Amino acid sequence: MTEKYTLADMQKEVDDYIQQFKTGYFTPLAQLARLTEETGELAREVNHYYGEKQKKSSEAPSTVKEELGDILFVTLIMANSLDIDLTEVFEKNMEKFNQRDHHRFVRKDEEKA
After folding, report:
1. Around Cβ 110, how many Cβ atoms within 10 Å?
2. Locate the NTP pyrophosphohydrolase MazG-like domain: which residues (predicted)?
């Protein structure tokens, strides 16, 4: 059976990983640079798999899934270093989206006019 992680579990595991190194957490600006780099790598993979630009045969294989994982990891690191509880952030964001965007898109359960 595959173990399921909560955001809190993920933040704790990432913190345990980072705490084993003398360097610890990088500065927020360095983390943002890394997140930007990973976002660029995700964009490249999406372009290769879903866009018109094919990979060169000399390029190392990577996947959208891997790049999303890298972005998640860097996001967890940044949240930890800034003492941000991502579970709390997620809950507030979902509340915001559910209220703000409730009528923004046609819902599947609405009858078509």
Report:
1. 9
2. 26-105
